[in-house]
Design brief:
Blueprint lengths: L15 H8 L4 H11 L12 E2 L9 H8 L21 H14 L11 E4 L2 H12 L5 E6 L4 H7 L5 E6 L16 H13 L4 E7 L11 H13 L3 E5 L27 E6 L12 E5 L2 H10 L7 H12 L1 H29 L12 E5 L9 H13 L2 E2 L1 E2 L10 E5 L4 H18 L6 H5 L1 H5 L29
The protein binds pyridoxal-5'-phosphate.
Length: about 475
């Protein structure tokens, strides 16, 4: 090597695909979570640590779940539970899930256990299903803001592109509420994607919605299904918050509809992470009547199986209707509503309105008046300032929101922590809003720049909001 010549970086030996995956940026939600993991709040051992109001977890019912999980009927182990089992999910578990969802999703006829596939979480459902429905470069329509994790789940395996259907807070003449989805918006986004040469294969809907917390009215749901049918699109229906509904709004599961316009292209997912507060147990299910789709997902299910003992315990759990109906669901709903009220009242006192919601574990809060300017850069600055106060919440940018200044706050945590969250937020907004940002922001600046949802998002107009997906070739842009 000649003097002064820099040593070449050793070849890490990855394939082009591996290098693409290694080089893909973590989303903002994951980055926030990583920071929290390094310095988590603990009332006794780390009271100055980060309070996590950013990750969508239900921590409200651990006491009653624990009580149920240590009952004698859970302590069962037979050799078959430690052996390889049906990749689709143990039959008796699928039977319990089918009975449970027939009842709780109000299906008009009994759901067939053979139409279910059990995987290790809904992330795995997104990854496998999108891989078998789309080819790399294909697009899926998705109303924004939306749960940003879907981007990586559909891209890392399958190479799919989101085609945004942007929703805004301003209510126009044709609309009755903020961030309202309409069929016209779906049609426009679909048409633009085609004009940009994107083959759109699917429509993804989340109901109850994450992060908005609202619920699709039955009529809109049917219109969306008709829209998808007209354009021969698959519908991936994520109902992971189906039973975390606490207002007086009626929730309509697609499983409850008497008929579907295109049953072979309509796929449903649900899991234990949110409605049962068990995201650590990693179980999600896909329900589809499409035999070929099941066959293909089932091949990939080899990589995404759930442990036999977990499937057994969850079968017992679902079977105990008396406990679910008289203890778990009423307690969970009551605690969710209480927690939501406390947080919403605390935010209201600070002059922060939230979108009216009746499902999910979070509120979608309007911090626009606290932004120095109506830009995503100002949104990021505010996020860092709040983090400086050791409070993690999620900026709208993490959900590909097209309007800066919205944040998602998860309320499904203990009342003590909610009050502490309000206190830290108050302190920051009242006393420190004009102070320079804490030094950790500078240290983390490099993280910001490679963010999948943000890189060129900063200081941009809505027109180029999605260019930050450096790994994605095309995105329908508005
Ligand atoms: C809408 C939505 N879908 C899917 C998931 C992932 O669920 P799981 O824990 O089952 O992988 C989440 C997690 O936050 C979510 O909010």
């Amino acid at each position: 090597m000649a003097d002064g010549e820099a040593a070449a970086a050793p070849d890490p030996g990855l394939s082009a695909r591996g290098a693409g995956i290694a080089g893909s940026a973590k989303g903002l939600l994951q980055k926030g979570f990583d920071m929290y993991v390094r310095d988590p709040f603990d009332a006794a051992h780390n009271p100055q640590g980060i309070l996590n109001f950013g990750t969508s977890e239900n921590k409200l019912c651990f006491d009653i779940i624990q009580e149920r999980l240590v009952k004698p009927d859970m302590a069962y182990l037979e050799p078959h539970l430690l052996q390889y089992s049906d990749t689709q999910g143990i039959k008796s578990f699928r039977e319990e899930i089918a009975k449970f969802l027939t009842e709780y999703a109000k299906a008009p006829t009994a759901l067939d256990p053979d139409h279910f596939i059990v995987l290790n979480g809904c992330c795995a459902v997104f990854a496998t299903l999108s891989t078998v429905l789309c080819d790399p470069g294909d697009g899926y329509l998705i109303p924004t803001p939306y749960y940003g994790g879907i981007n990586s789940k559909t891209w890392l395996y399958g190479g799919m592109q989101p085609v945004h259907v942007p929703l805004f807070s301003e209510v126009t003449n044709e609309e009755s509420q903020p961030f309202q989805l309409t069929i016209e918006k779906l049609e426009t986004a679909h048409q633009r994607a085609i004009e940009q040469g994107i083959r759109v294969r699917a429509l993804i809907l989340i109901n109850p919605h994450n992060p908005l917390g609202d619920i699709y009215p039955a009529q809109l749901l049917k219109e969306c299904l008709d829209f998808a049918h007209r354009h021969k699109l698959h519908v991936i229906m994520d109902e992971i918050y189906m039973l975390s509904v606490y207002g007086d709004t009626t929730f309509t599961s697609i499983l409850s509809l008497e008929s579907l316009p295109d049953p072979d292209r309509t796929h449903f997912m649900w899991g234990f992470s949110k409605d049962f507060g068990m995201c650590g147990i990693r179980v999600g299910v896909l329900y589809t009547r499409n035999h070929e789709v099941r066959k293909a997902v089932n091949q990939l299910a080899v990589f995404h199986g759930c442990p036999g003992p977990v499937q057994y315990v969850l079968s017992q759990f679902l079977r105990d209707r008396e406990w679910l109906d008289n203890v778990f669901f009423p307690t969970n709903k009551r605690r969710l509503k209480e927690a939501q009220n406390i947080l919403v009242d605390g935010l209201a006192e600070m002059g922060i309105p939230v979108l009216k919601s009746s499902g999910g574990l979070y509120v979608w809060a309007d911090f626009r008046k606290f932004l120095k300017s109506q830009t995503f850069e100002a949104e990021m600055d505010l996020w860092w300032k709040i983090l400086g106060e050791k409070l993690l919440i999620s900026p709208g940018k993490a959900f590909c929101c097209y309007e800066p200044g919205w944040f998602r706050l998860v309320f499904s945590d203990s009342i003590d922590k909610i009050y502490l969250c309000i206190q830290r937020l108050q302190q920051m907004l009242r006393d420190k809003i004009d102070e320079p940002i804490a030094s950790s922001h500078e240290e983390n600046e490099h993280i910001e720049l490679d963010d999948e949802t943000s890189a060129n998002y900063i200081n941009t107009s809505v027109d180029d909001v999605s260019e930050g997906y450096s790994h994605l070739k095309k995105i329908a842009v508005f």
